[in-house]
Amino acid sequence: MTAGGGPLSRPALVLGVLALIVHAYADLHYDFFRDELYFIVCGRNPALGYVDQPPVIPLIAGFADWAAPGSLLALRALPTLMAVACIAGAIWLVRLLNGGLFAAWLAGLCVFLAPFDMALGSLLTTDLFTPVAWIGCAGLLVKMLRDGDHRRWIPFGIIVGLTLWTKYLIAFNLVALAVALPFTPLRRGLLTRWPYLAALIALAVVAPNVWWQAEHGFPFLELGANGVKGKNIALSLPGYLSSLVVLFGPTAAIVWIAGLGAVAFAPRWRLYRLFALQFVAFVAIETVLHGKDYYAASLFPMLFALGAVAIEAAVRHAVLRGIVTGAVVLMGIVAAPMSAPVLPVETFIAYEHALGYKAPQMEHRDLSELPQVFADMFGWREMAKMVSDAYWALPEADRGKAVFAGNNYGEAAAVDVFGEKLPPSISGHNNYFVWGPRGHDGSVVIRVSGKPEAAKEAYDDVQVVGRLNNRYAMPDEANLYVIVCRGRKSSLIDDWPQFKNYN
Length: 503
What we know:
Layout lengths: L8 H18 L7 H11 L11 H12 L4 H4 L1 H20 L4 H13 L1 H6 L9 H18 L5 H11 L6 H11 L13 H22 L3 H13 L5 H11 L5 H13 L7 H17 L10 H15 L3 H22 L5 H11 L16 H4 L4 H13 L3 H4 L2 E3 L4 H10 L12 H5 L8 E6 L9 E10 L11 E9 L3 H4 L8
Parallel strand pairs: 1-2
Antiparallel strand pairs: 2-4, 3-4
């Protein structure tokens, strides 16, 4: 490596350009994801917080929708750039660890081709900034381990505070870090004022959002508890670890496991043992709390960098290095269509069948022919079109009172985004519950339901006006009837509290 890290910029540039091409191409085949539609609607209703996330991602979605309505490229431009930033960040970490060109290529390829990172660059999600932010935090930790300058906790705190405006997940990184710190040289910093000042700075930065949560009874905590109780698939410790192997590439596991092994057991890498201890603590916490496997994603750029540098130091033979790199690349290419929507849907289904592999479930929901993340990009436009047709077919007097009531935020947001000049939807799900019934008493309600007859318990008249049946959509969003309900037996406004569904 030359002074200034010049040669290491080449893998960052090449892999970054490849990432831009792959993710731009992926936007051509499928449609908006369920959560993206919801973020757009939240962004149209700006606030200091929402039931299920801080405000930055919805505001980004709302801006993209305003600047380029209906454009997936605009909505997903920032995720693509963050995917590029993760690759560059991993290579930057290699440089901090005094790695060379081989380590830079290996770490960059691992991040670029990791199935979860490939997916992350293809969707606008609340996970958007956390991996990049933690790369910055990890770099500061490396520098503190080397020079003992605990004033670096201040930029660490700023990064954390800003990241909390995008997702609260980084709090788990901090808890795991706090568990690990007493067993590392950084424990000396706990006797200084700097980490505590950093914590105060982070709290001050995120304070307005915390205030919003407090004003609304901390709904995010209720939502998290409900997820643990039933929504998320509970993984055992072996199941969690094996899932990480799949999520970040079966052959790339050689690299991050090598990194963990090096810093945990090799005297040469003892200074960076913090990152192995933090990983162990993080996995233990998530296993106990039934957290999702991908929550660990932000730790992996550092683990890939450590593993790449350790392999570079231990493996000198060019052929062996080529075998490791080739294995990472080959498996990454094979897995890419399973992670990012780069294939047309029928081609993907054929490819999936040829591989004989099905993506693991993360939630207790039935699946269609597609993995959940792909299936949740189908059926929304058809639903919005049929609901719009039902609304505009109503007599004028009924239209003045009618509203679409979604069973969940996906349905409500789809109709809000794709509907044809409809009144805002209502739902009891997450932030739609906070927005309330919007003055509707329930006298005329349009709904989608798999069992239209069940609506007769609440309404005097239920009329089926359409049928949805998209084979690619999630089963609980397919095979639905569009119904018009009239004559609610009780006031929707009075009944609203019972519709709350934070999940």
